[in-house]
Amino acid sequence: MAEPSPLQISWQDSNWIPNLTPDNVLDYFSQRSNPFYDRTCNNEVIKMQRLEASRLKSLTGIEYDLIHVQDPILYIIRKQHRHSPTEVTPLAEYYVLAGVVYQAPDLASLLNSRLLSALYHIQSAYNEAMSYSRFEAGKDYYWEFEKKAKSKAASSNRHELSSTLFQRKKVDAVLTDFSKKFPPKHIKPSFWGSQQSNGVDNPDGVTQADNQNVKNQGRNDLLENGQKHLRDNFNTGNELTENIDAQMIPNKKRKL
Question: How far apart, in Å, are the Cα atoms of 223 and each of 76, 211, 214, 228, 231?
Answer without folding.
Answer: 113, 19, 14, 9, 12
